[in-house]
Model the fold of this input.
Amino acid sequence: MPASINSNGLLAGKVAVVTGASRGIGEAIALRYAQEGAHVVVSARTVEEGDHPLSGSINSVVKRINDAGGEAVAVRADLASREDREDLIKMTESTYGPVDILVNNAAVTFFIPVVDFPERRYMLMNEVQVYAPFHLSQLVLPAMRARKTGWIVNISSHAAIHPDVTVAGRGGTVYGMGKAALERFTTGLASEVYADNVSVNVISPGLVATPGVVYHKLINDSNRDRVTPVEDMAEACLRLSYSSAEELSGRITYADEMIAEFALEPAQLLE
Done:
């Protein structure tokens, strides 16, 4: 049976913001949330096909959702910009109301050894992958706490795990630093808002053949057999987006762990 919209699904009427949603994991999460009845704000810098060297755009994702009978809008946002971050939440609230679910997925990545890493690129990566999730959380938390409900899902990576120092690195130190910081932020925030029934979790996808992963040549003969479908990540993120904080918060988890623990059956995504 082809994928479809269930307006009375698990996220019926919920307002979800997904950053970095023009392609890859963010796109899959936006589609999956919409299929469960969420009103989805699809955000990234790429508005139209052709605006970026990689395929995908926020307008094309929104069209897939709306053509299927779902509810979504596209909001362009450069998460390196404070003004864009603030406008993203303001536009969401003016269109659909307070944010119920925030997915911090956007990233900008450079693989360069520490000795050669330019300061401007370091600052950009830190702004987008560490401070932007922090700031967006600040913007949505007052309404979540007031309503005693909300979900924040931060997207991390296995790069946050400390490496084997005997194996030569390939310039991923700054990327790993950012993801490790995001994981510590997640558990700290989860403890701060637990009493308000706001769930905060961080999840890593494993190796998914997203356009970005392919571009950076992160899949090779040694790991090709470990590539997992993007549908698994979307299903795992869905599971993190409707339980109470008492049941599911403060997790540093992985897509495969969520699939196994909750016996999830990843759904087909909208074509």
User: Anything to note?
Assistant: Strands lie at 15-18, 39-44, 71-76, 101-104, 150-155, 198-204, 252-254.
